[in-house]
Amino acid sequence: MIIEACLTLNQLIPEIMKKLIIYLFVVLLVQTSWAQVDRSTYPPAGPAREIKLGDAHSFTLPNGLKVFVVENRKLPRVAFSLVLDRDPIMEGDKAGMSGMVGEMLTGGTKNRSKDQLDEEVDFIGASLSASSTSIFGSALKKHQEKVLELMTDVLYNPTFPQEELDKLKKQAISGLAASKDDPNAISSRLASALNFGRNHPYGEIETEATIGNITVEDIKAYYNTYFKPNIAYLAIVGDINSREAEALVKKYFSKWEKGNVPTHQYAMPKLPEKNMVALVDRSASVQSVVEVTYPMEMSLSHPDYIATRLLNYILGGGSSSRLFMNLREKRGFTYGAYSSIGADKLVATFSAEASVKQVATDSAINEFIFEIRNLRDKGVDATELENAKATLSGSFGRSLESPSTIANFAINTERYKLPKDFYATYLQRLNALTVDDINAAAKKYLKPDNMYITVVGNGAVIEKSLAAFGEVSKFNNMGNPEVLVAMDANVTVDQVIDSYLKAIGGEASARSIKTSRIESVAEIQGTKLNFVMAYDESNQAYANKVMVMGNVAMNTVIKNGKGTMTQMGQPSKDLNDQELDAMKMSMFIIPELHYEDMGYTLELDGIKDVEGDQAYKVIVKNPTGNSQVNYYSVSTGLKVKSENGEAGETYLSDYQEVEGVKFPMTMTIKSPMLPVPMAAKVEKLELNKPISEEEFK
């Protein structure tokens, strides 16, 4: 150790002397120049330089395929990106079809089944994927011809197997079901419907019906129509030179036959004449998803493109933006508030959004409008602009570290008819913009009086306050106008409850049930869940046990006026008064029999659509303010849905009679805590049999 220390010291002495000499030189230099430099202010920024991007080598095959090659020797890999430049298309009653094209392309070829294709890709450690407008492949340099062989096999010889389409349709319908309960997905659908309308490709929505209409012939027709080389661009990036790339492209893509591709034009969507408020009433929401939005013209080739990037960054482009600092840092309404100004050759949108506290919904909207109006009318200051320039310049610079960026720049220049120096002079043009330029853009593009104000939240709590911003129009979770069904003014909430009790077998039969034990089973992403619920109304005892793979994951018990909860083997936790009061809403076999005794208040809130069934909406509140919403079918009287902020939504179906009383045998639960909807099916239901004390421990 001593010898090692001495060696280290001897090695350091020359290094120390060298650093000392450098230090003394720097001190001398500073001392001789101190009087000549004013260090009280920051030096002015130098002019932005023209960026030397490095040209992408390009050529075009006789069939019209445009190719761009970017040589990069950092890694022994090569990537091939094929992109189709088609106009957006209307899918009509086949909406959702284009989203399946990519998976169908890679679902098997004339030469390989899907499994064989996947196996060959994996064997060489490659990547291969496709979409309705692209095919991508990448591999090690030594496997570049193999990945091109696989890529072009997918391009030329897809078989579009029916079993693959069946699987994709099933997945799409499952995803659609989950999205109907996702507030952000609901908000996105609503904004698209309002901004573009249903007769525009950006405003179409998928439904179970449109997905069901999609056939293999539709996929083939799309493929035969749009997969043509004369609307395609191929970017090649990696360990390859232009001569080698050109030889490979000619070998693998020359036989691709060109053809006529239809073009499409659409009317430019218009701004609303005045602010319009659109509400999706989602009683289970504990927050409100707020978005203010409108359509606008903006594209890469637009002269104001860069100005709108800076404008948006100042308004809501990051954690130092005006919206973020106001709604989160100052007001505490949300975890984050952001805005965006899109760019699209067809039509773009302005959008500002946040998920906010329910009680602050109207206040948050007010602040959104204030910040947009304030920026339009009073403009930006020099400091904000310089900070925005610095951030966007840095982001642009970092993007240049990726070789694929250069290829994308080359393709964009060709696709969007940009000036040849569009990207080379990007920073120069960005830094040349002045406060006056950004303020002019703000006055031109910010429309605080012509916006769609969309809200997904609990209408019973927030609807009245939204009227301050304009007439409130209601929409369903698919973004369609809510169909208002006229309700007989003479119908009362008591009559709705009476109809329900009559529908399940009559009040007398319902009251005769004193005990019940229900065993249900569900499966979520391959995991089996068992539920056991026990009710002893005479002793006002209730237990709800959830088991996973035979182990108790959670057990909730109410007995003797007290409640406890045990989770994953942890010690029991006593429920506080508020938790206990909330749980009491579920402790009765048929809660409707006990609402009056428990001091609950009921409010009839019109007729709503529940999965195509018209149902009375009844808001149930307990004395401490906890609430849930029940929906009773107008036609059958049966309860078809129940929801609250904690549990989410529960759909009740498959009613069957047991000892003279009808019970729902399937309960489908949609909750933000679940990745997909969960269907719990009753396997065993016992009535009026002794309940063991063990159930309530």
UniProtKB/TrEMBL annotation:
Check the record and name the InterPro entries matching this protein: Metalloenz_LuxS/M16, MPP/UQCRC_Complex, Pept_M16_N, Peptidase_M16_C
Instruction: Give start and end of each Peptidase M16 N-terminal domain.
Output: 77-189
MF GO annotations = metal ion binding
Pinpoint the Peptidase M16 C-terminal domain residues: 213-392
Q: What is this protein called?
A: Metallopeptidase, M16 family protein
Origin organism is: Mariniradius saccharolyticus AK6
Q: What is the lineage of its organism?
A: Bacteria, Pseudomonadati, Bacteroidota, Cytophagia, Cytophagales
